Fold:
Amino acid sequence: MSATPRSSLADSRNNQERQDSSIATQQRESTQPQTNSIPPLLGSSLTELTQWVQQQGQPAYRGRQLHAWIYQKGARSLADISVFPKQWREALVDVPIGRSVLHYRSQSPDGTVKYLLRLTDGHIIETVGIPTFARGRDDSTQNQKSKERLTVCVSSQVGCPMACDFCATGKGGFIRNLVRHEIVDQILTVQEDFGQRVSNVVFMGMGEPLLNLDAVLEAVRSMNEDVGIGQRSLTISTVGIPGRIRQLAEHHLQVTLAISLHASNQRIREQLIPTARRYPLEALLDECREYVQITGRRVTFEYILLAGLNDLPEHAIELARHLRGFQSHVNLIPYNPIDEVDYQRPSPRRIQAFVDALEKQHIAVSVRRSRGLEKDAACGQLRASRFAAPHAGSNSEQ
Ligand code: SF4
Structure:
């Protein structure tokens, strides 16, 4: 698309480049996908699409039609848009909308669906659709109408450079950043597959979103304005990149920030998240305080419970000390074991003891229910289990 105006959310590029950490510098060398030269239309706003159709010599109302066909009708090619004049459609045959191809789909008995999506350059990413059902009923017997919410767990990178020790994605290394249409596509894919509007989005799939902040902000804008998901229903999760939480705060979004803390002290954190060596726990928490001050939004802390490592009541007390005075909520995630490492999931009794210890310290806490625990449930695990090599584009299983 030519002469595309930048969205206000994407104005951070210059600031962001000044604050690049060594991780970001390292990953920038291989960030951009090798696609054909015409940028895909998905992720563009109504204004951008209207300008684009006018540049093609068409009346402005075609922009609204194009927007509706991309975001509501799920058009995968401009040739599908039957309201466009046939001759023009034929002339646009090389303009991509930017949809991925479903490579593999796996559904758990609880209704959670994991997708492997193939991008135009052949790389594969993982996306998860998580339906929430009416309380007190048996999930497996629900029909479409009784679903209350549909949450999508999206990826922001192909692989991840953060190399967290407990994570299948981290074990697989980093390939490249996703671009905005590849992030928005994940939402539309899940929406179409479930036949239901997506209500919530969490950036908790493959990748560290704050290392790809420009594309994430553009995708957030599109999810909000084009797909119609409220900002408060969007959660950006990060293990913490120095300076980036502040940078995100300066956009004054209403999204929820989730910090993947996973440890009650710097020693355990460095063991689990090697990049934390460059970002002490206190510095991370200081930046979170700034985030709360600037945005007025609460921060959620994610804490993976690993048996025998960080799941004792004394860890809970240590964690509570760090979070005192914070407007926060702790989300405990009992670990889903993966083949590559020896970490184990704590017993229900130990999980409850951790919850009790936090509550005694007046910390708001919840335990995330495992969805699709029985197989390939951890982030990146499905992709890892389906492929021996990271690049598996031609191995379609559709
Ligand atoms: S846990 Fe998240 S940040 Fe860490 S390696 Fe996995 S995907 Fe990356």
The chain has two domains: 8-91, 101-386. Residues 1-31, 136-145, 386-398 have pLDDT under 50 and may be disordered. The radius of gyration is 21 Å. Residues 302 and 331 are 5 Å apart (CA to CA).
